[in-house]
Queue: 4 jobs
Job 1
Amino acid sequence: MVNVMEAPEGVTAQEHGAARIVVDEPRCIGAGQCVMVAPDLFDQRDEDGIAVVLRDEPRSDELPAAREAAALCPAAAIRLVRGSGA
C-alpha cells in the first residue's frame, strides 16, 4: 500500500496528484472487505463477487477508507497508486 498525501477537502485525490485506486481482478477472491469499509468506492460483481471500483479517484475525505480497504484485502488485490499511472 502506498502512503498518499492528503488532498484539500472536497478535492479528488487525482486532482491533488495523490492517489488512484486499482484492483487486480485476477487476484481478487471476492471476500468483500473493501465493500464493507468503503461502500462508496467499491462494489462486487453479482456473477462472481469480484471487486469493482466505483470511483477510482477518491476524494480527500475518502482516502482513509481507501487505505483501509487496501490493507484489509486478504488477497492484496487493491492498491493505491500515485498520480495517474498504474
Job 2
Amino acid sequence: MKLSNNSPPVLSTNSILYIDSKGKLHRLYCPFKAVVTIDASPLKRGDIVTIEAVKVTSEWIDIYIVENRGYYYYCFRITL
C-alpha cells in the first residue's frame, strides 16, 4: 500500500468528513471510536478501537491508523 503525499486541502491526517442522515457535511476529528467489521489481524470483528489518524493511498483509498498500523477504512464502522 503506497500512501499519497499530494492530498487536496480538504483532507487531513487528523479527521474525516462524513454526511449525516439529513445530508449535512461534518468533520470528525481523531481520535474517534470504530467497531471492527471484518477480521484484520490482529484486530477481530467486534473489537472497539480508536482511530488515531487517517492516511490516503495513492489510489485515494482511506487508511485508518490503529495502534500505529494502517487498515483500510472498510474494515470499520464508525461509532458516533
Job 3
Amino acid sequence: MEIRPYETSDADEFWELKRAFELGLGAGTGGDDKAEVYEGKLTEEYRERYLDWVERCVGDDERCVTVADAGDGLAGYVFVLPEELAFIWDAAVLNEIYVRPAHRGTGVADELMDAAVSLAADQTLPLDRLVLDVDRENDRAGAFYERHGFEHWGEMVAKKL
C-alpha cells in the first residue's frame, strides 16, 4: 500500500471514494431524509465543483489530500484543509477520511490518519488541535477517532436553511 499525495490522474477513482463517503454519511444515522439529501447533492455539477476545490487545496499543499494506493486502485483517502482555510475553526481541520470496506481493518485508515496528523502538526494556527465533525451515532468512526487520541471538544449544531 502506497500512501501518497493525490494526483489529478486520480480524479475519477477519487470521486468514487468521495461518493461512497457521502452516501455513507447519509446511511444509518439521521433518518431517511438525511440519506436522500446526501444522495441528491451528488450531481455532475457538484462533482466538478468538488474536484476543482480539491485541485485548489492541493495547489496550496499537496499533502492536503492523501490517498492510499493499493496498486490496483485507490483504497482510501484523507483530506485535511490547507492552512489558510483552517482558520475557519482556528485549528487544523480533518475534512474527510474514507477507506473502502474491503480495506478496513488492514491499517490503511491508521496510515492515512498518521499522514493527516503529520500535516496538521506542520500548520501554524492559533489552536494546537486537529478537529473534525463526526456523527455521534457512528460508533465505528467514534472508536477509530478515540483510538487515535481524539476527544469530544464542544459540539457542532446545524440549522436547516
Job 4
Amino acid sequence: MENSGVPVDDSKFLRSADTNKKTGEIQDPVIKEVLQFVESRKEEILSTQASMCEDGSCASSNTITVEQLNNLVLEITLSEVWC
C-alpha cells in the first residue's frame, strides 16, 4: 500500500486501524500478536545493527526501513495464516 508514492508502514496502519479509540487498547488478539512480534523483531534487528557497528567501522543506525517493517508484518501474518 502506498500514500502518494510513499510506502505506508503496515504496523502503524494496523495499530491505528485496530486500536479502540476510547480505551487505547488493541482488542484483536491476532493483531496484537502481530504487532508484538514486529516490535520484538525490530528490537533484535536494531541491536544486531548496533553490535555489528561497535568497532566504528560503519555508521550505526537506530532506524529500520518501512520495507523492513512491512516484511516483518508479512512474515508473521503469513506464518499465522498458513501454519
